[in-house]
């Protein structure tokens, strides 16, 4: 349990600024993702994946395994697709991840 909390904390502390210039889906989607009502570390993982980073690269940033990054991304996408979240993510974006 302690390791999960630490991975959330470390990923939450990652600075997105150097990577946002590589975001390929427009500022509208980026602002929706940043305003989403999911936990910060899940948002950052999804945004970094949409910027073109691999699971391994994000794992190095957050000091967690690439498998943990894959799990975090999957859970974050499930939460974003939930009807109560109010954010529509296209299938095209999900396929590119």
Helix content: 55-70%
Mean pLDDT: 81
What portion of the residues fall into strands of 2 or more residues?
Answer: under 5%
Element order, helices and strands?
HHHHHH
How many strand elements?
0
Q: What separation lies between the terminal Cα atoms?
A: 27 Å
Poorly predicted regions are none
Radius of gyration: 13 Å
Oligomer: single chain
Number of helices: 6
Derived structural class: mainly alpha
- Gross morphology: globular
The main sheet comes to: none
Question: Could you characterize the architecture of this molecule?
Answer:
Helices cover 63% and strands 0% of the residues. With 97 residues, the protein is mainly α. The chain is globular, with a radius of gyration of 13 Å.
Please outline what is shown here.
This protein has helices at residues 2-12, 27-35, 40-50, 55-62, 66-81, 91-96. It is mainly alpha-helical. The longest helix has 16 residues, at 66-81.
Give structural attributes.
single chain, 97 residues, mainly alpha, 6 helices, globular
Q: What is the strand and helix layout of this fold?
A:
Blueprint: H1 2-12, H2 27-35, H3 40-50, H4 55-62, H5 66-81, H6 91-96
Helix pairs in contact: 1-3, 3-5, 4-5
């Amino acid at each position: 349990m302690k390791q999960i909390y630490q991975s959330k904390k470390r990923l939450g502390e990652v600075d997105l600024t150097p990577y946002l210039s590589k975001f390929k889906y427009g500022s509208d989607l980026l602002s929706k993702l940043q305003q989403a009502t999911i936990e910060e570390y899940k948002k950052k993982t999804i945004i970094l994946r949409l910027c073109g980073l691999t699971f391994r690269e994000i794992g190095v940033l957050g000091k967690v395994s690439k498998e943990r990054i894959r799990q975090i991304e999957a859970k974050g996408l499930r939460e974003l697709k939930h009807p109560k979240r109010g954010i529509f993510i296209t299938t095209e974006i999900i396929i590119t991840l």
